[in-house]
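Sat 14:20. Reprocessing the chain from the morning session after the first attempt stalled halfway. Input below, unchanged.
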Amino acid sequence: MDARRTGGRTIIDRPYLLLSLASLFWAINIVLGRFIAGTVPPVTLAQIRWGGAAVIVTAISWRHVKRDWPTIRANLPVLLILALTGITLYNTMAYYGLNYTQALNALLMQSSGPLLVALMSLILFRDRLTRQQLIGILVSMLGVIVIITRGHPGILFGLGLNRGDAWLVAAMGVYALYTVLLRKRPAIHFLSFLAFTIAAGAIMLIPLFLIEFGSGYRIDPTPAAFGVILYVVIFPSILSYFCFNRGVELIGANRAGQFFHLIPVFGSAIAILFLGERPEWFHGVGYALIICGIVIAQRNWRRARTAS
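Finished this time. Tokens:
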């Protein structure tokens, strides 16, 4: 029986769950990316990640791509821009930055995402943040700072910004552009969209990969490196991009952008679960602030007042 007719919803109709899963997979990707920094060159990691994802997605979506090809060809410029920003540039820049900064900084930089998405929306489409969206961003950002600084904001002054941080902020700017431009995505099957953008992004990475390979950078073939590669091909690539793209489709770029704040939350939780760190009071306070900020930003207060 159709879930829509029975009043139920499938997972692909639940934007908050989809966006939360995307943030979880990306948080793990950041931690693992830092873990193998120096073991797998950044462009090589991006090339293997997206090349592997392209093979998998193309294999399962070829029927949809063939059917949607006339629409894809008619919308080639916007699809290539989405592939360039969301696949080729963002991930390569982020992996490069992780070679020069600590995971703590990288997780903190993710909190710039909602503001950058709002800025891109304003510049490109004249979309303005509502008051509750702005308040929600600030409350969530405060929660991120509480977690990252362990309740001592003065730690921020000791983090020491470097070129890795600059690359990560620039990468977030590129991904904010991708997020906002998703509204220009043509009406094709989601698997067709994933297959084309991932494959095109992987192809556009080839020149950068050849330059890096020609410069003498090679993979250190350790079991950990291959384990990380397997993870990044599937979870932060195929699954995260499906979840995030669908979430943006359902609730829009500005509201979906708030979920970038969950990446530091999941990152710290991963450290607690797998790195043996102890949960502290500031984790609870930070989580509560982030969740409150997301709720504030998502809630349509005007509608709620009208209904009451």
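The mean pLDDT is 84.
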